Amino acid sequence: MIRTLLLFSGIILILLSLICALLANASYGYVIRIDDSELSYGLWKFCGDGECTRYRELSDYDGPFEIRVHVARGFFIADYVISLILMTSLVLCLFTERKEAFIIATLFSVLYALLLIVANICQTLAYKTLKDEIDLAQKDGTIHPSGDDEDNGESYGWSFVLPWVGLALAFFELPLPVVVLQEYRENCWKYFWKMSKNDLEL
Question: Which fold has domain 2-201?
Answer without folding.
Answer: Butyryl-CoA Dehydrogenase, subunit A; domain 3 (1.20.140)
